[in-house]
Amino acid sequence: MRADSVWLVKDLIEKPKRQFIIPVYQRNYDWSLTNCKKLFDDIINSYKLDKKHFTGTIVYIRGYHSSKFDEDIIIDGQQRITTVLLLLKAILDKAIMISDFKLVSEIPDYLFSKDNSEDLKIKLKPVKSDNVPFTFLMKNQNSEMSTDSNITKNYLYFVKAIDVELAKGLSLSDILYGIKKLEVVEIILDVDKGDDPQTIFESINSTGLDLSIADLIRNFLLMNEINQEKLYEDYWLKIEKLLGKNSLTGFFTDYLNFKTKDNISQSNTYDKFKDYYMKNGFNKTSMLMDLKYYANLYVVFIMEDNKFSPEINGFMSDLRLIDQSTIYPFLLPVFEDFDKNLIDESEIRKVLNFFIVYSVRRLITGVPSNSLRGFYKTLYNRIFKDQTHKSHYFDSILSFFMQLNTKDRVPTDDEFKNSLINGNLYQKKNLCKMLLTTIENNNSNETLDVKTLTIEHILPQTLNEVWLHELGENAEDIWSKYVHTLGNLTITGYNSELGQKSFNDKKSIIKNHSKANKLNESIISASNWSLEEIINRAMKLADRLLEIFHIDNAENVIDYEVNNGNSYSLIEKEKLVSTKPVSFTFMGDKFFVKSYKQMTKTMIENMYQIDDSILHKLAESNYSAFGTRCAITYDKNLLRTHQEIKDSGIFIESNLSTVYQLLFIEKILEEFGLEDEEFNVQVVESESSEE
What we know:
The chain contains 30 helices and 15 strands. The protein is α+β, with helices and mostly antiparallel strands and 691 residues long. The strands form four sheets. The protein has a six-stranded mixed β-sheet. A four-stranded antiparallel β-sheet has the order 9-15-10-11, with helices on one face. A hairpin with a 6-residue loop joins β13 and β14. α2 (33-49) packs parallel to α7 (150-167) and α12 crosses α16 (328-339).
């Protein structure tokens, strides 16, 4: 590897017989107008101050070289090189227009290589989607250029920016002088001498756009591969077109949460992806094949897909509407079972319907969602650890939930109905619209499209004199308690017409214009709108929703109650004195340990995987789990005996008795918003308690 500070134009671009290649594993040309404006402003300032401007790193691999021609592969810096060439082309075109013959003679040497074959003349060959408009531009076939391309947009920006500077008195030569003041660090890699492009690429502190997780994974899978173009065409491009660029990061995160025991977040997805690849015997082709397979399942999670039935698409649309993407790592293996014919269409519909019902009940009753990602991550293995349970697929899922006694259990009918009647439904607007539309569309021939409707209040959102009179005594109390509840809400396309109108005016508009007949029958039949009407309507609508979002009993009950022998919960801390742990169970996974000290450390390391930011926050505050004694800190000197959590710089106190070790775990679960019931310890009798 050789690194030198060089002039971008004179030392790098101007070389007469060279072409820079942007390989298929690189992202597209993504610079926005904001990026271009900043670079252009820097160029103008460099001219005015007669001062060089450092603009980042250009890294390339020495590709095909001969005495007549160099073909170099860009690893980092394509955004800057492409942008500068677009600006140079804009200057050339303006020079031709105003007959600046000096520049008309000079600039082509920066854009084209001399005496090369036609396909090698242009100094830069972008990735395929960018190469078409770039080639059209360089060959002056501007009418063929796509207006959606960043190549086109940024070229046109520079044309206008140049005109602005010319109007201020600058010349084209002045702007070119500023470009010639751009300095870069040129890093040339030589693979034959052991330079590893992937390692160097990851360590580069580029001044360009931040790389996305998808960019990093694409480069990891395609860089250095001899057959990279085929892999790109056959796998990566198809995955990208299938899911869309904006959904790739979510797909990779959910894929790894399904495939690994580690808790994956966007911040660690790339590192965990490389670990998974290395530890599981993949090569680049087999990895891309696996990703493509699951991408074909995942697509229905993010959009309607004609590979699946309208019913399945409908269920997934509902999950998206109420923002339940945390369930995707659980659904990936479910859809894999469906794809492999382990379950049929009827069975997967029942599964998806159950999770719609479950999600709606959780959201309505206000069950906290902070543990939901970890719950869904382990759920599939908890239910189907015994593969024979798949012979009664839906019943196994239903049986598991019916036996669950943590906060993740299914809310009861009474809890659900009470929350429907009294809860603030309007604050969950998508869920509110879904429930109101579901009431109307259930068993109807004509269905209303939730996307075209708005939520309307009968009692208005702002209490005015008309409604103070309408409600009578205790008007403000009634309004504040019930304005956003189920009994007071409907759906209509005429939101702007209802507003602050009186009840009779609203009733008339609803009667004549709204198609939501089931929802509005109680409103239209009422002579006035008071507390009694609101409560009666809420109870009727809640009963309908209970019928729609009901829970069936399992036809074949699967027993998930395991005989744990000497197994204890955190409530039974005192019983564990003079015992020795052999294992503990956390969120359905079992961990074998030899001491309470090891158990506490292992447990907290699991919590660190779930959300390391919580533990970092506790360490920063020198967290005390019991009294004034510090238990979690960055400063190990504050502890009597310390253990470090996963090389994180976070230290925990380990000089604790059995009861205090368990109290420590209980407090940490509380900090993470998790239930004590998620944890159990299995023990044997010991001669003395552990200190």
